[in-house]
Amino acid sequence: MKLRVAALVDIPRLHEIRIAVRENTLSNPALITPADYEEFLFTRGKGWFAEIDNTIVGFAICDLREENIWALFVHPDFERRGAARALQTEMLDWYFTQKDKVWLGTEPGTRAEKFYRASGWRENGMHGKELKFELIREEWRKLNS
What we know:
145 residues, three-stranded antiparallel beta sheet
């Protein structure tokens, strides 16, 4: 598996992955546009993708402005191969050179919820209909030292 910083040309594949997921699905895929990806990748934050056999299989995007994780998704055909963990590590290692804390939201009762709990994220209430998880730099460093 290879990880690399996402580029403008990658946006169509990132959106394909986003609409293919089985959990945390979009109610209307048209609500997220190529311009949204571009803004989060190049203005508000940074993004990475995981590649297996020259196929982009997952991606992660952090938002420095709102201090959150905007996206961390793996295509269902490539789940359970370590892409999510590798993307999370790459993204958070970079993110925590910029900021001290981060949050994200995910649907309750999903594999994503279990993944974040196992990764050291702490639940801190609700964000709309999603569970809100938070992580601080010191906790991340302890978990990954």
